[in-house]
Amino acid sequence: MSYNYFLSKLYTYMITNYVYYGNISKINMDNLLDKIDKEFQLGAYSTKTRKAYLLYIKEYISFCKKFRFKDKQTAVEQYVLSKHEEGLAPQTINLGLYAVKFLYLRVLKDKERINIKYVKKNKKLPVVLSRKEIEKIISVTKIKSID
Predict the structure, then answer these.
(1) Exposed (0-12), middle (13-18) or buried (19+): which is 140, by Cβ within 10 Å?
(2) pTM of the model
(3) Confidence at residue 100, expressed as pLDDT on a 0 to 100 scale
(4) Using a CB cutoff of 8 Å and minimum separation of 24, what contacts does 67-75 make?
(5) CATH number, position 19
(6) Does residue 128 belong to any structural domain of this protein?
(7) pLDDT at 3
(8) Residue 147 counted as domain residue
(9) Fewer CB within 10 Å, N- or C-terminus of the chain?
(10) Is 113 inside any structural domain?
């Protein structure tokens, strides 16, 4: 699926569903997608990042519409908490938060700071084989010589 497909789907969704942000004020949906696309171009975001951000922006808009929060901070906090409750990985939750912050700071030019820290990533140690395990693998592996 192309980036333009995602953009058109988001546009259709936003036009058919009047969305409320923060203080229940309507945002001009016609210009919002143009602003998002312009910011993507100015920031030279990759196609994968664009698709991911559009997906999370759409999800956030739907979330805000469903609960009609009275302020932006509460809306973003509850959105991030809902991602935790879904059991998503920290990197996925952070991606959603990056997208929401992008929407407010870069697209809507909202100067009010979002005071939510990013989720700490899991610290996983790499799987390392012991010398004995490596020797065992090498001894079991039969190498054919190329002559």
Answers:
(1) exposed
(2) 0.67
(3) 92
(4) 68/20, 68/24, 69/22, 70/22, 70/23, 70/24, 71/22, 71/23, 72/21, 72/22, 72/23, 72/104, 72/110, 72/112, 72/114, 73/114, 73/115, 73/116, 75/21, 75/22
(5) 1.10.150.130
(6) no
(7) 55
(8) no
(9) C
(10) yes
Per the domain annotation, does 95 fall within a domain? yes
What is the DSSP secondary structure assignment for residue 86, as one 8-state letter? T
For tokens 């920031």, the residue is: 43
Which residues form the domain of 113? 3-121
Per-residue model confidence as pLDDT tens digits over 3-29:
565 555 565 555 444 444 443 245 555
Quote the tokens at residue 7.
């953009």
Both tokens assigned to 133: 């395990």
Cα torsion angle, 107, 59, 83, 69, sign:
positive
pLDDT at residue number 7: 56
List the chain residues with pLDDT less than 50: 15-25
Confidence (pLDDT) at 122: 72
Tokens of 89: 């990985």
Distance CA 36, CA 39 (A): 5
Number of domains in the chain: 1
pLDDT of residue 23: 35
- What number of CA atoms fall less than 13 Å from residue 118's CA on the CB side? 14
